[in-house]
Amino acid sequence: MTTTQPGRRRLDTSVPTPYEVATREPRVTSARWSRLLLLAIVALWVLSTAGAATSIVDVGAPSWLWRPSAAVLMVTYSVILTHRVGGYMRIWVSLTALLALATVATGMNGLLAASAGVTAVISAVSAVLFTRPARTTPQVLREYVVMLALCLSGAAGVAAWNAAVDARAFGLLVMAVSVTLALSIVWRLGSGLHGLGRSHLKLLVIVAVVAVGLFFYGSFVRESGSPALQDLLDDTIVWLRQNVGGVPRPYEFLIGFPALVVGTSMRARYREGWWVCVFSVVGTVIVVVSLIDPKAYPSYFALSTLYSAIIGLVIGLAIRLVFLTPRGRRAARAVQQSMRSEPKRTEPLK
């Protein structure tokens, strides 16, 4: 006869918890048609990105290819984002297609600016929402690459429209719309602000303070900074451009890219990790609008993005190590949570 030894019950964390958000029913019930549609969307994304990229890299392609490629890419991103958030395809994709057709047909600068703005917003937000929870460092790297690929594709689409706009005003408007859209989507995915624990709220506040501080400090330096400080910054930028070919962008490597690393890592156990992912939209927006100015050099853009991505990844992994690693055995038992499950990358989040 054997007796069961008394002891504390342990939570089985090997089985992922069910997804917390109700999702819509599949749009296509046939598995075969679902695969075909998925392959078609991927093919359209690849082909339209390649066509739009000919506006950046001189490969001898005709210039008439630029705007039709940008139009197809904008509609493709509309399908991706609408499907991912469980929206109404007939409404949003149809409106995007109408805008794309009108822009290509008329070439009016107002429509070109609107199409470039829509492309920037939906590609920047899609680059974040298309990621999945990352439990390990290789998974973090995978999601990082996915984010970079989507926002670089969006940058090619924005450049291909070749719209005559004020670059700074365009960037600020796209930033405001993108962050607002991301917040409205994440409000449900992240269980509202009331779901944030003390440690997660502390991390969110730190990221927010850094973001606001950078914004106001940058504005202060441009408007009221001393001539000596402005000259120092200008000389540093010139030296970096002449010696390394690019300048890392602070909003990307201090806010946007580290936020994606930390946010996807948090989402592996806490749905509130979506709130940190909102700040990664800051980084993706800056990438997608970087080529709206026709005077921007593609090589400078590529190297600046590469340096920002490397620095941002290192900072994000360091923050992940400090804030998301349990310290000590008792702390590990106290904070251990079950793994979360999220829908596949090609399925709606809600």
Describe the structure in brief.
This protein has 350 residues and is mostly helical.
How much helicity do the residues have?
A: 55-70%
Distance between the termini: 52 Å
Radius of gyration: 22 Å
Largest pleated sheet = none
Structural class determined from secondary elements: mainly alpha
Strand count: 0
Tally the structural domains: 1
Per DSSP, the total helix count is: 12
H/E element sequence: HHHHHHHHHHHH
Which stretches are poorly predicted, pLDDT < 50 over at least 5 residues? 7-11
Shape: globular
Mean pLDDT: 85
Query: What percent strand?
Result: under 5%
Describe this structure in words.
It contains twelve helices and no strands. By secondary structure, it is mainly alpha-helical. It has one domain. The longest helix has 27 residues. The chain is globular. About 1% of the residues have low confidence.
Write the layout of secondary structure elements.
Elements: H1 31-53, H2 66-84, H3 89-106, H4 109-129, H5 137-161, H6 167-189, H7 198-224, H8 227-243, H9 250-267, H10 273-288, H11 298-324, H12 329-335
